[in-house]
Specification:
mainly alpha, 3-stranded mixed sheet, about 70% helix
């Protein structure tokens, strides 16, 4: 469904998209002060709920200003929503598996089962990752992606929102390298998922799977992660990460995958 004329005719699309992300980030930070009123073990869930409320509120304000509905930018529940979400979960797990395989291959780390954890316990503790993924997809692959795509095309929309996604993570305390080679690169993948599926259910599933897979691995035998990374060559995981290899090589590979997907989608669209 195409947005109506008032939405398309607004020449300040880039300013609007950037302003949306700034307002969302500011409101999210303000609302996050209320997290202290909840128990520490509920922090992830509260964080996700607060972020979702902030994203919905800012989206509603901007849509009201443009006089369009949530459905006009692909934000609606359909029969395909749940299947798309789980398709995204499968895609995300596959991509993270490839990345993890690259890290293990180049680092000398091995993967062992964490005997102090259980799969059910892990899934229960990571359920809050769903609203965490949803709120960021709503905030970056919702209104901002659509408003840019309708003016400049999907390539600019995907790349610009990925840049905004990286800046958002810098505002949340990430290093520049991790923000752009981590969140920024994943932002391209999520953006392509949102463009291809014409909504955020697929990208939310991918986002959730990426966070879930990351949480599944750790460097200590605690009760949370279900697998443990063990060193073989005497290098600690922290030193390996600080060397840049753990971040740069896998993320550049993921970036290449994202660009190839973008190229494939562009050729498919042109051929129609």
């Amino acid at each position: 469904m195409q947005p109506p004329k008032p939405f398309l005719s607004n020449s300040g699309y880039l300013i609007k998209a950037a302003l949306f992300c700034i307002v969302f980030t500011g409101l999210f930070i303000i609302l996050s002060f209320f997290k202290s009123a909840f128990p520490p073990n509920a922090e992830r869930l509260v964080h996700g709920i607060i972020g979702t409320v902030a994203a919905f509120l800012v989206t509603w304000i901007f849509l009201r200003a443009d006089k369009i509905s949530f459905a006009a930018i692909g934000l609606r529940f359909e029969k395909s929503t749940v299947p798309k979400f789980f398709s995204g979960v499968v895609i995300g797990i596959i991509l993270m598996g490839l990345l993890l395989g690259g890290v293990v291959l180049f680092s000398g780390f091995t993967i062992e089962t964490n005997k102090n954890s259980s799969f059910f316990h892990f899934l229960l503790l990571t359920l809050p990752l769903i609203p965490l993924a949803f709120m960021e997809e709503l905030a970056f692959r919702g209104y901002p992606l659509v408003v840019i795509k309708e003016q400049t095309g999907f390539r600019s929309a995907v790349l610009i929102t990925a840049l905004l996604f990286g800046l958002y993570h810098i505002a949340n305390g990430w290093t520049i390298q991790n923000a752009f080679l981590g969140a920024g690169v994943w932002g391209i993948i999520y953006g392509m998922g949102a463009v291809y599926s014409k909504g955020i259910s697929l990208s939310t599933g991918m986002h959730y799977a990426a966070n879930l897979t990351t949480s599944a691995f750790g460097i200590a035998d605690d009760s949370f992660n279900i697998w443990v990374l063990k060193q073989q060559n005497g290098m600690s995981l922290e030193n390996y990460q600080s060397s840049g290899l753990a971040t740069i090589l896998p993320q550049l590979s993921l970036l290449l995958i994202g660009l190839l997907i973008m190229y494939w989608y562009m050729k498919k669209k042109i051929s129609k």
